[in-house]
Design goal:
Elements lengths: L6 E3 L21 E5 L4 H9 L3 E2 L8 E3 L4 E4 L8 H9 L3 E4 L3 H9 L12 H12 L3 E8 L2 E11 L2 E9 L4 H15 L4 E5 L3 H6 L2 E3 L1 H11 L16
Parallel strand pairs: 1-2, 9-10
Antiparallel strand pairs: 2-4, 3-4, 5-10, 5-11, 6-7, 7-8, 8-9
């Protein structure tokens, strides 16, 4: 339904729990609540409930649960012919969890046609804290020692919640993503949350899922024990 009440929260524990995600706005799609904090416990609890933060510098923390939800099943990922050729050539050297802060900073850098970034210093610090606790992970693609692509996200139970990716060379982020998928398959990850669909994500195999179905899968898959880091490359593509 359109125009529901927007929940405002104080820092610290939610006094009455998270608002039902069904009460999220239709326009803007998925806006659920504002305020609160970015402490690790808050973020982890939000992710398990299908809620994530997304806001601009100077705004209050905004919490979202869009309808539908973009997801990708790792077992159904099929690299394109051009990406398979790129992987076979070995143009990029891929690693995990060796430059988390640098990957986040690169994802936050200005992009063509964009006026700003949602990865504020506070957001970068919050995910850095999750990384140090072993929940957030990065994938790095390097060429001649230079970081040219990568991505980062949060792993809970059998779900990887993708946050952002960047590319400074052709297909660098796609190569990083292909290595991530292989790693997740080898470590019993069943679902990748892509949050909101885009042409780039669709090219990787992301599809839309009704929010209610997504929450059912989260309840089944995003359960402890969580795959705590650091991660290491354990399979060559």
């Amino acid at each position: 339904m359109s125009g529901p009440r927007l929940y405002w929260v104080r820092e610290g524990r939610w006094r009455a729990g998270w608002p039902p995600v069904e009460q999220a706005c239709d326009d803007p799609n998925g806006l659920l609540a504002a305020g609160g904090d970015l402490e690790p416990a808050t973020l982890l609890d939000a992710y398990r409930r299908g809620i994530f933060p997304w806001f601009s510098e100077g705004d209050p923390i905004l919490w979202w649960s869009p309808q539908p939800r973009a997801v990708l099943w790792p077992q159904e990922f099929v690299p394109s012919r051009s990406l398979r050729r790129r992987l076979a050539r070995g143009d990029y050297r891929v690693s995990f969890d060796t430059a988390f802060d640098a990957v986040v900073a690169a994802c936050a850098a200005p992009r063509p046609g964009a006026s700003g970034t949602w990865i504020t210093p506070g957001m970068a610090g919050a995910y850095g804290a999750l990384h140090r606790l072993g929940y957030a992970h990065s994938v790095e693609a390097r060429q001649d020692g230079e970081l040219v692509g990568g991505l980062y996200g949060v792993a809970l139970g059998q779900v990887f919640f993708g946050e952002s990716m960047f590319s400074r060379r052709s297909d660098a982020s796609k190569v990083a993503f292909a290595h991530l998928v292989r790693y997740l398959l080898n470590h019993d990850c069943r679902l990748i949350d892509c949050q909101v669909s885009s042409g780039h994500l669709a090219s990787l195999g992301a599809v839309d899922m009704p929010r209610a179905e997504f929450l059912t899968w989260l309840d089944r898959l995003a359960r402890p024990p969580d795959p705590r880091g650091p991660w290491h490359v354990d399979d060559d593509l």
